[in-house]
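The records we work with from here on pair a chain with its fold. The integers have meaning only within a learned vocabulary of local backbone shapes. A complete example follows; check for yourself that the lines match position by position.

:::
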Amino acid sequence: MRSLALGLFCLLCCDAVRLDRRRPKPITARRQNESTVQTKALENACKAIPLDFFFVIDSSRSIRPNDYEKVKTFIINLLQFLEVGSDATRVGLLQYGSVVQPEFSLNTYTKKAEVEQAVRNMEHLATGTMTGLAIQYTMETAFTEEQGARPKSMHIPRIAMIVTDGRPQDTVEEVAAQARRAGIQIFAIGVGRVDMNTLKAIGSEPHSEHVHLVANFSQIETLISVFQSKLCGDAEMCDVVDHQCQHICVSSPASYRCKCRKGFTLNPDGKTCKGIDYCDLGNHGCEHDCVSVPESYICRCNKGYVLNLDGKTCSKIDHCADGSHGCEQEFMNTADSCICKCRRGFTLRPDGKTCKKLDHCADGSHGCEQEFMNTEDSCVCKCRKGYTLRPDGKTCKKIDHCADGKHGCEQEFMNTEDSCVCKCRTGYTLQPDGKTCQQTECGDGVMDLVFVIDGSKSLGPANFELVKQFVNGIVDSLNISRMGTHVGLLQYSTKVRTEFTLSQYTTARNIKQAVSRMQYMGRGSMTGSALRHMFEFSFSAKEGARPNTPRVSIVFTDGRSQDDVSEWATKAKNSGVTIYVLGIGKAIEQELREIASEPDEKHLYYAEDFEKMGEITKKLKSRICTDKPSDDSMCQCENMIMFQNQVTEKLKNLFQNSHVTEVGDTRESTCA
């Protein structure tokens, strides 16, 4: 009986095991539901703190395609903690390699779904690693109000998140420090073999909150929970932003304010504090000066006075009161001592005590026509500059330096206060000998010339002045007139500014004055934008471009452009504009080739520094206007080609003789 019961029990157990194996287990579904609920809980727990949030993504060739997709997934997951909208969080993004490629700005999208789709559509650049250039663009362009950043007065936190996997090919320390000082809070995320010191040089302080390093791209997702607490409302605003409050930061919904400790008051900048000035309370009672000290004030007297026993009023110190000054005529009490003085017509002797009569002109009886001078013995008459004293010793006559006919002037002369100077008639310039005249070099050369001048920060104010001198030197050699050559100029950095148009000035003097008044912009280097402005506006009829007139542009740059130059340079050249490009210092050869007209060797020039600028101007003035086309019977195309060839040859000879490197290959230009 016992054996039968035991057998029945075993049979039931085996059937139960088999039934359990056949029954589907809802483990996966349960976990999925838990994950969904968890994600929704995170989203709901994240309070709507408005941010201006900008992603700066490394898209260099060292990042493999599957790792690049993981970065995009990380960005999309991070967006789940943000409420995207024009009045909520604004999101922008750029990726960078050898160049900066903005994907969308802070005011491009107002919905989270649109941002996510834009991230999914990004394509891998697979080039270099110019991290410093990307940070500079973020500071100077991405966080501007034009690009969607809200005014600083609104206290909306400005956050940049930089994701990189390698060593930068440029410097990052200085530009990152500038960005932080500008109020941008930087999170630096490194993946793989990134130098931690480089990340700390980029990220904001404290580094424990802003600098993160993971071993590979698979681990980057582990940072999601870290940034949830930083970006969501769980954290105080004072913990999230770089508030820069000197004493106390007080968080408030979606913002913060600075506060001072007791005994201090907040300065107008809203950040720093100063001790309470007890003198400003107005009840100090000091007769002269009130000086604040910690928790009180003291009275102080002006120089030459002493504080009375009441600690408030002052009495003047009289250094002459004891009568020991020894002055012969008069005396005067000063803040430091008692000094002697003499009456009118007398002067103090070196002993500082006695006086002697000196001013023989004081009685007004000298009778001098123009000026007079008192000497030790008498009052003598003098004449102003350009006049000479007549024999009567009183009256004056004007000196005519040209009267003797020895001036030697070839054309005209003019009497001045100091000498007789030579002048030349219109269309001629005075030679270095100061006597003879020569016809203006470009007397019959006609063109529309537009200078495109780099005003970026890398140039520097001193070199910018050299560039202005270079431009004025070229202007001196041209026939500037209403019917002759017209000149326009635009300067560019992060933006493009028209300094003057082709129709604005018709004299060389006015053009040179306008060049001298130019203010250095000193920011980024958007050469492509400048070429676009030149093509679309500078050579338009509205700004003074004339039909059937050769169009020439001289582009001056000293460094890498932050945008593409090829498109607008090509359009300008195809429209008939001849472009000469002068590269200095860190200018990039490939960019110079894309800008210059063909053939390269006639239109592209490069120099290592600004040392030869004066020599360049001198040679260009002497050669740019030689052998100009003037035969009216030539076709318009032939005139254009001859003019371009002549200017090209002069520039070529100029830079060969000035230790300037030509860049390019040999090509032919034909007239169709």
Q: What stands out?
A: The chain has a mean pLDDT of 81. Residues 258-317 form a domain with the Laminin fold (CATH 2.10.25.10).
